[in-house]
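Friendly challenge for the regulars: who can give me the structure tokens for this chain first? No prize, just bragging rights.
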Amino acid sequence: MAAVSQLKRVIARMAGDDQRTFLITSHDLSFVEDVCDRVLVIRSGRIVYDGPLAELRARVSGYSVRMRLSGSGPLASGLDQAAARIDAGGVALRLAAETAADALSLLCRAGEHRDRIEDLEVGKSRLEEAYLGLL
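First reply, four minutes later:
Bragging rights claimed.
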């Protein structure tokens, strides 16, 4: 991790001091958020976004709730069935909430599945949500 931090510092210094432009390709969106001010997103050979990072980030607001449930049983009412991805390991849900209260409401509805919850993450929406929205 120290090498990544050092690379970020070197890129920031060189870009700022020498007015250089760097072309960085990465699937690590947290790295992109830390070092880039402009983003180009390509899907199947076509540009789907070309613009400032801040503009892309502005497309996401609020909170994200991610959870993994064991088994493949039905979901509680109020949980978005379309947001569910079912695989051999169970059900993965990625839900969006505008406010902290909305996120809490989603968690309360998910409580019906408390015995099935294997993993749970709640946080501010990240660049990843905007990126996935483009794809």
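The longest strand covers residues 90-97. The mean pLDDT is 81. Your move, everyone else.
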